[in-house]
Design a protein that fits this description.
Elements: E1 2-6, E2 17-26, H1 30-44, E3 50-55, E4 60-68, E5 71-79, H2 81-86, E6 95-100, H3 101-105, E7 123-132, H4 137-146, E8 152-161, E9 170-179, H5 188-206, E10 209-210
Antiparallel strand pairs: 1-2, 2-6, 3-4, 4-5, 5-6, 7-9, 7-10, 8-9
Helix pairs in contact: 4-5
InterPro entries: aa-tRNA-synth_II/BPL/LPL (IPR045864), Fdx_antiC-bd (IPR005121), Fdx_antiC-bd_sf (IPR036690), PheRS_beta_core (IPR041616)
Keywords: Aminoacyl-tRNA synthetase, ATP-binding, Cytoplasm, Ligase, Magnesium, Metal-binding, Nucleotide-binding, Protein biosynthesis, RNA-binding, tRNA-binding
Cofactor: Mg(2+)
Length: about 210
């Protein structure tokens, strides 16, 4: 997170435009970075509508503009060969994103609700599913919500994996589910049933398969 200074359009001695921005860089696929961005945005505004549209960035060979709730939040892209050579990234394939930090902080799902501290413990389950590369985090969240019980307290993006056990053209996405009953202690059997319903929805909606290895 840092302040950026961009010259104002036209000639003159006006002060540059100052904005605070959040930068993310990773040595991974652009689709992985996209999943991280969707997870970050959804952790702030679970109802956010996220769209990635093609963009032209001077530092990227392929890029996208990040539109959230009909407003531009930032950009993401694959670092170009020229930039990689300039910074001696010969053995890396970095992707990067830049978000308007102030605008990111304004995201929220309606009015903020204050809840009392929970009286009963939560049960957390991690799911690793194999889906096609073009499946977005937003698609996965929607599939989870189709069968989510009232006891589902939170869904978090954990990570993306490519490698042994994952077919070419697909990816393994790990998500964390947290369940809690405000009126009593959950049993593992009830959570098993919740999890089975969610997996069924993921299979029917995004063609997901559980990764067991």
């Amino acid at each position: 997170i840092a302040d950026t200074f961009v010259p104002r359009p036209g000639q003159g001695g006006e002060l540059p435009i100052e904005k605070t921005k959040l930068a993310l860089v990773c040595d991974s696929d652009l689709r992985d970075l996209r999943g991280v961005l969707e997870g970050l945005i959804k952790s702030i505004d679970r109802d956010a509508q996220i769209i990635f549209t093609p963009a032209d960035l001077h530092w990227a060979q392929t890029a996208a503009q990040i539109i959230v709730n009909s407003q531009s939040l930032g950009t993401a892209g694959i670092v170009s060969q020229a930039v990689k050579e300039k910074f001696d990234f010969k053995d890396l394939s970095p992707c990067a994103a830049e978000l308007e930090f102030g605008q990111l902080l304004t995201l929220q799902s309606g009015a903020v609700k204050v809840k009392p501290l929970p009286r009963f413990p939560a049960i957390q389950r991690d799911l690793s599913i194999i889906v096609d590369e073009n499946i977005r985090w937003a698609d996965i969240i929607k599939a989870v919500e189709n069968k989510s019980p009232d006891e589902l307290e939170d869904v978090q993006f954990v990570g993306i994996y490519h490698g042994k056990g994952v077919p070419t053209g697909q990816k393994s996405v790990t998500l964390s589910l947290r369940f809690r009953d405000e009126d009593g202690t959950l049993t593992h059997q009830r959570v098993d049933n919740f999890e089975d319903d969610i997996v069924e929805s993921l299979t029917a909606t995004v063609g997901a398969e559980l990764r067991t290895v």
